[in-house]
Design brief:
Elements (H helix, E strand, L loop, with lengths): L1 H14 L18 H34 L1
Helix pairs in contact: 1-2
């Protein structure tokens, strides 16, 4: 089971990169132009949506295995 967890963690980390809030262009910095911040936030939301979908599929697969 650990390998499945590791694989899922790796996939989520690939979809949702580590926070780089100290870099220019981050929506967390007040010096980032609004258009850049909104664009980055939209990309972050899209990545989160994809990651949640992938996690939901994995959970569904696991629940089907355990109830069989």
């Amino acid at each position: 089971m650990e390998s499945l967890t590791d694989t899922l963690n790796e996939r989520v980390n690939k979809l949702i990169p580590r926070d780089k809030s100290s870099e220019w262009g981050s929506p967390h910095l007040s010096v980032t132009p609004l258009s850049v911040a909104v664009s980055q936030l939209a990309a972050d939301v899209a990545a989160l949506q994809t990651a949640v979908r992938e996690m939901a599929l994995e959970i569904q697969k696991l629940s089907e295995i355990t109830t069989s």
